[in-house]
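Researcher: Quick test of sequence recovery. Tokens follow.
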């Protein structure tokens, strides 16, 4: 009986694919931002943003909005709590933890005339062609890359 059980485990482990976990590199996770009109932002920034793509939005790469992008991406170290904090009133979200949409914008070759290098698109396509399924045995683990690993 034990032999049959061990045999079934071995058969199952050879049939099932080992999971793949893709951790995007620096700058390769979409960051979505929230802040209200009460937040202190420079005059060239929009007065509020509600769950909108900040990194990497083509709307924000031309002057003067690129200055707003740089401002909103700032973090500050609080020596009392020993933690990294966002600017006051600014919050970030990462969508679709485990899925690939959290890195799709950067992973694709580009949108319109705005082109990116192929960060992960060919890798994702490769594993999908080899019968991996997103959120089943292929996962992306996006993170807020503005914060160093020590503070995560």
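Model:
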């Amino acid at each position: 009986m034990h032999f049959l059980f061990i045999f079934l485990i071995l058969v199952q482990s050879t049939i099932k694919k080992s999971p793949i976990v893709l951790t995007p590199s620096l700058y390769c996770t979409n960051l979505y931002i929230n802040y209200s009109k009460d937040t202190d932002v420079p005059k060239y920034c929009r007065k509020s943003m509600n769950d909108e793509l900040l990194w990497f939005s083509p709307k924000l790469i031309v002057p003067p909005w690129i200055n707003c992008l740089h401002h909103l991406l700032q973090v500050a170290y609080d020596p009392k709590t020993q933690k990294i904090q966002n600017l006051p009133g600014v919050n970030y979200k990462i969508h679709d933890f485990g899925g690939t949409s959290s890195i799709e914008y950067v992973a694709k070759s580009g949108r319109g005339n705005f082109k990116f290098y192929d960060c992960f698109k060919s890798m994702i396509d490769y594993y999908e062609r080899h019968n991996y399924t997103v959120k089943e045995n292929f996962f992306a683990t996006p993170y807020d890359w503005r914060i160093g690993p020590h503070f995560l």
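The longest helix spans residues 2-15.
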